[in-house]
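Weekly modeling sync, notes
Attendees: S.R. (lead), two postdocs, one rotation student

Agenda item 3: backlog of single-chain predictions. S.R. asked that every request posted to the team notebook include the full sequence so nobody has to chase files. The rotation student volunteered to paste the first one in as an example of the format we agreed on. Action items at the bottom.

Example entry:
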Amino acid sequence: MGLRQQIDLQKGHLMMALFFCCLLVCGQKEYKGRLLDSETNLPLPYVNIGIVDKGIGTVSDEKGLFHFDLSSAKISDIDEILFSVMGYESLLIPVKNITLVYNDYVDVFITPAAFELKEVVVSNKGEWFIKDNIGYRNFGEKNYGYWKDNIALGGELATRIIAKSGLRKLKKFEFEVWHNPSDSLLLRVNIYEDDGKMGRPGTSLNTSGANILCTVNSDDKMVQVDLSPYDVYVKDDFVVSLELLKVYGDKELGLVLSATFNNYGSYRKSSSQDKWEYLSDLNMAYYVASELMVSEKEAQRFELRVAKKKEKTTHAIWFCDYAR
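Predicted structure, as returned to the notebook:
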């Protein structure tokens, strides 16, 4: 082999090496990690991850793994990535301090929050819980809300529920699906105080430390979620949201849910840690079965009304049978 050929070969190797380095640098724009409990080293699923108010975020999967694109022109070195999940201290990491490892996952540890015992109220007033269902349903109206491919993991669709003042326990949540092209979707039900900016969703009212999850299959129409195990109590108006955690199948996201006309309003987030935006004066047709605490006298009046209504219904059925 001549000297010129050797030089040309060395140049070729150098170019290949430089090209490979470029690939590594470009590939490192994707931040990949695994979220772990700092005390148990167990993976943390469904953690919200993102840059606050910039519409850039995602959610960790059931194994605590996440992929996060840092190539957006919106991101600067002074930005911070926020990690948040129920039952744990929020974690902020400056973008400039992010560790990027090619073809591997970086371990990120989150510290459990201090456990607070729920306040137990003992009363001798003889309070009772009565059924009091609240929320909205669609009765044939052509109103709907939807998610499309511009909604990233962690995106939420929320609506305000107007409720009579008083302590109530939430029992069941229901919503209606009009269209879902995906094989299935994994959603999280979130329940908030309306104490955020400009009355937006704020403090989470789910203090159970457990995610309220539901799966929506392609053929589901009415979806019901049992809230009883989570002991969620509210005292006034509140906000319920559905949050996108995972899309199964290779079809584009296109979930359409029924809505109804009310003046209380709906809100949305495009991704994890994004800001809430006012969506419409329409309300999503979110319906909540609940039990409201009342005095013993009020509970007795309620039972009397229910009994009279049942008696009228029974009489109407008997009359129809007799008429036949």
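Discussion: group reviewed the output briefly. The longest helix spans residues 296-323.
Action items: rotation student to repeat for the remaining queue; S.R. to check formatting next week.
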